[in-house]
From TrEMBL:
GST N-terminal domain boundaries: 25-106
Protein name as catalogued: GST N-terminal domain-containing protein
Gene Ontology molecular function: any one: glutathione transferase activity
InterPro entries per UniProt: Glutathione-S-Trfase_C_sf (IPR036282), Glutathione_S-Trfase (IPR040079), Glutathione_S-Trfase_N (IPR004045), GSTL1/2/3 (IPR044629), Thioredoxin-like_sf (IPR036249)
SUPFAM superfamilies per UniProt: GST C-terminal domain-like (SSF47616), Thioredoxin-like (SSF52833)
Recorded superkingdom: Eukaryota
Pfam families: GST_C_2 (PF13410), GST_N_3 (PF13417)
Listed Low complexity bias regions: 8-21
Region ranges (Disordered): 1-21
């Protein structure tokens, strides 16, 4: 039985907050608790047991401190990782970076065929997200195709419930988005992604047992409200 993660989450930094003492050797994950991209890196950190090695620095995106863009990460987005006097961005790159540059369990199978398929699934995530966002905004759009893609992906090696037979970077990349899309599609279009997709259901159930992920989940109502504001203004 996995041990529950005990961690008091720091308060988000806003426009009146001072920056941390940058480049002092501390490894920091600049994040936002509602952001699915940042959540990917947060899950990776937790799954590798790096809570004491990578400090969370939450940023209030509605009231962003100017020093964040000026001194930390000019693209002004989260996530960003401060490590070895560098700042690195982009969530998919960061999942891989944290997995290969820190201690803890390796979040990829050894099997080269599975690794290759993992790359394919990781590179599909942006297309997946765009397709779902587009269908949510269009009342007449067909919503199922991206989820059928996932359902088929679970059958590839026949050793579910995870994409590559064991919990990996791929599960981490999809979970924050599937979690939100499930809620949003039900709310906005009364479309239930779980109907007729038993493998997706089993994956969602299994993911919900992973402490590293569970700890990063936020109030569903808050997520839906944030996403609706983002999508519909
Ligand atoms: N491609 C980036 C996307 C990151 C992203 O869009 N983050 C959002 C929050 S969920 C953000 O920082 N938005 C602020 C902005 O765009 O100004 C990644 O994968 O890390």
């Amino acid at each position: 039985m996995a041990v529950a993660i005990q961690e008091t989450l720091p308060t988000p930094l806003g426009s009146t907050s001072s920056p941390p003492s940058l480049f002092d050797g501390t490894t920091r994950l600049y994040t936002n608790y509602q952001c699915p991209y940042a959540q990917r890196v947060w899950i990776t950190r937790n799954a590798k047991g790096l809570q004491d090695k990578i400090e969370l620095v939450p940023i209030d995106l509605q009231d962003r401190p100017v020093w964040y863009k000026e001194k930390v990460y000019p693209p002004n987005k989260v996530p960003a990782l401060e490590h070895n006097n560098k700042i690195i961005g982009e969530s998919l790159d960061l999942i891989k970076y944290v997995d290969s540059n820190f201690e803890g369990p390796v979040l990829l199978p050894n099997d080269p065929e599975k690794r290759e398929y993992g790359e394919e699934l990781l590179s599909y995530t942006d297309t997946f997200n765009k397709s779902v966002y587009t269908s949510i905004k269009d009342a007449n759009a067909e919503d199922g195709a991206p989820f059928d893609y996932l359902e088929n992906a679970f059958s590839k090696f026949g050793d579910g419930p995870f994409f590559l037979g064991e919990f990996s970077q791929v599960d981490i990349a999809y979970a924050p988005f599937v979690e939100r899309f499930q809620l949003l599609l039900l709310d906005v279009k009364k479309y239930d992604i779980t109907i007729g997709r038993p493998k997706l259901v089993a994956w969602i159930e299994e993911m919900d047992k992973i402490e590293a992920y569970k700890h990063t989940k936020r109030d569903p109502q808050l997520l839906v409200a944030t996403l609706k504001r983002h999508l519909f203004g």
